[in-house]
Amino acid sequence: MAKPALAPDGEALLDQLNRLGSLHWTHTWVARANDFAAATPLVRERVIRVQLMRGGDYDGLWHWSIITEHDEVSRNAGPTNGYEMTCVEAGEQAEMAWIAATKGTSLERRQELRNTRNAYAAAKDPE
User: Fold this and answer.
1) By the 8 A CB rule, do 25 and 36 touch?
2) Structural domain of residue 24, as residue ranges?
3) Contacts within 8 Å (CB) and 24+ apart, 103-108
4) What is the pLDDT of residues 26-68, one digit of tens each?
5) From the CB of residue 41, how many other CB atoms can be counted at a distance below 10 Å?
6) Number of H helices, E strands in the chain
7) What's the rounded Cα separation, in Å, for the pair 12 and 3?
8) Angle of CA points 36, 37, 43, to nearest 5°
């Protein structure tokens, strides 16, 4: 198995994670630089966690997981957690898992609505 890449500064990783998609990434705890969580405006809680593992068989790997406690999140849409070599890869896998787990639910439909602009917004600020 290849050796995981060394983790850059926590703030640099946070910037990279926030470029992935529609979720908002933050530090899970201020004191832990290599521990991140993602939230969506559609659910009030954090929906994803990515953290650097220390010790044991997974030392140096990035663990990701999605929170499946929300009523509309499918637990049968594929993996809900895993390990990746880099933080960004873990974030990408977690976001893909979240999208798959919410596909076809009102969470997906509300996200689509958030991404569309109404006629007033388009007239006010044409792209």
Assistant:
1) yes
2) 10-112
3) 103/74, 103/77, 105/72, 105/73, 105/74, 106/72, 107/40, 107/42, 107/43, 107/70, 107/72, 107/73
4) 888 877 789 999 988 777 778 899 999 999 999 999 999 998 7
5) 11
6) 4, 5
7) 21
8) 170
Kindly state whether residue 79 falls inside one of the protein's structural domains.
yes
24, pLDDT greater than 80: yes
Lookup: tokens for 113: 């609505």
Q: Provide the domain count of the chain.
A: 1
Structure tokens, 115: 């991404």
Write the Ramachandran bin of 78: left for phi over 0, alpha for psi from -120 to 50, otherwise beta: left
Exposed/middle/buried for 52, CB within 10 Å: 0-12, 13-18, 19+? buried
| CA 73/CA 43 separation, integer angstroms | 11
Q: Output DSSP code: residue 65.
A: E
Detail the DSSP E strand segments found in the chain.
24-27, 35-40, 43-52, 62-66, 81-84
Residue 89 has pLDDT above 60, yes or no: yes
Alpha carbons within 13 angstroms on the beta-carbon side of residue 42 total: 21
